[in-house]
Please model this.
Amino acid sequence: MEIKNIAEVLNDALEYGRKYINKGNVATYIPELAKVDKNLLGVSIVTMGGKRYHAGDWQHEFTIQSISKTISLIFALEHFGSEYVFSKVGMESSGDPFNSLDKLEIKNKYPSNPFINAGAIAVAGLIADKYEFEDYLVLVRRLCGRDLIEVDKNVYISENETGLLNRSMAYLMKNSGVLDTDVEETLKFYFRMCSIKMNTNDLANYASILANDGVEVKSGIRLIDKSTIKILKSLMVTCGMYDGSGEFAIRVGMPAKSGVGGGIVASAENKMGIGIFGPAIDTQGNSVGGYHILEYLSNELGLHYFSRELSNVVY
Ligand code: DON
Model:
């Protein structure tokens, strides 16, 4: 059996992902995101042994968008407990696009899950009611391992000025009593968390904590509660790639969360954390290059959660 080296596999994965960039486009509904070069593509890995590997445009910073929803869920679960959080938002995949407000009107006043926009706005409302945005940012920095992580002000302004659909959802939820807090304060919190910028190394650090059951690899310190991790990763499997989550589960098979800025955070249980950036996204809001990089890595490294194949790649 030929023994391969992971740096080689990562470069091959990047080149494989690159072939799909032309099948996607940058998000244009947030004008500031439309300015990003759609050909950028980068990936970072942090293994459970603490080794790091990078390829492509991994140093390029991007806004994490919906990936921020995973960290707001961690924050809310650990400060308010799951019972309270899930009295405001459901645990089911919606089968609808991330920005849909259909079900809020016709089916259930509570959003289906914390990762669609309505659900994330409801969770942001819980946090904004009792905490400052800085408190949330401290957690983001700790999980990503870099103190200089900040909000991209231009993206924030752009989202705030154009987020009419998100405003509609928030007002609908305020009207039905799901949201107790001030709508504009809640939206300010939500748009700021979506506009946090980082690179794939930061994202891979966070992913490695998820893959390591909530424990930081290099220090051995538990940063996320066991019960939170279980809820979070289950929701990442069922809802992390929105209405593309089913196919992603089959093709890739890792808890993951995408953002329309082109980021994907993916956690290969007990093996490695993966951070990806590729701003060309598909109609479901998932990075097309990133999706294919993950599919390639999953196959080559045996990362699918139901794979029992031994990898011949050393990492
Ligand atoms: O609210 C929005 O529409 C964006 N700030 C976040 C959406 C998003 O990232 C969906 N993910 N793929």
